[in-house]
Design brief:
By secondary structure, the protein is of the alpha+beta class. The protein contains 3 helices and 7 strands, in the order E-H-H-E-E-E-E-E-E-H. It has a 5-stranded antiparallel sheet. It has a two-stranded antiparallel ribbon with strand order 2-7.
Length: 153
């Protein structure tokens, strides 16, 4: 069911590297969580928020919950598109959603959700997202853009 909240969606493209595959040339599902992180960091960077700058400012974003569903296999060297969506209304916790699309003719390889939490590096206690992060996500989520469906069939 589509989410009706304002959100910023970003498509990260990559290929399945050999090191992420089993002896049959299939992507090991555990690596999808790494792909999710790469897409999430890329999404933030695309709107002007560098994860490194957050860490330098004493803000960390650990994963507090993750959910992954595999729908079909991906193989070595397959091109993948990982769509990450970040809601505009997040507070201390941000539930980011993911759709992984395989090569044409398309189809969903996997879907998932990862919940990250903003914490102070010093106290290790939850904090609200820094104002520059809230502004950047709101601006990106509010911009008129028509994102096509992530996995054309």
């Amino acid at each position: 069911m589509p989410d009706s909240r304002l959100q910023y969606c970003y498509d990260h493209r990559c290929r399945v590297p050999y090191r992420d595959c089993d002896t049959h040339g299939l992507l090991r599902p555990r690596h999808l969580l790494d792909y999710f992180k790469t897409a999430r960091v890329g999404a933030l960077r695309s709107i002007g928020v560098r994860y490194r700058d957050l860490e330098d400012a004493g803000v960390l974003m650990p994963v507090v919950d993750a959910d992954l569903s595999c729908h079909r296999p991906a193989r070595y060297d397959d091109p993948l598109t990982i769509r990450v969506c970040i809601p505009d209304d997040a507070s201390v916790r941000i539930p980011t959603t993911y759709t992984v699309c395989g090569p044409p003719p398309g189809g969903t390889v996997a879907t998932g959700q990862v919940q990250v939490c903003f914490i102070s590096a010093e106290t290790r206690k939850p904090i609200r997202p820094p104002e520059p992060v809230r502004r950047a996500v709101h601006k990106a989520a509010s911009s008129p853009h028509s994102a096509p469906p992530p996995c054309p069939t």
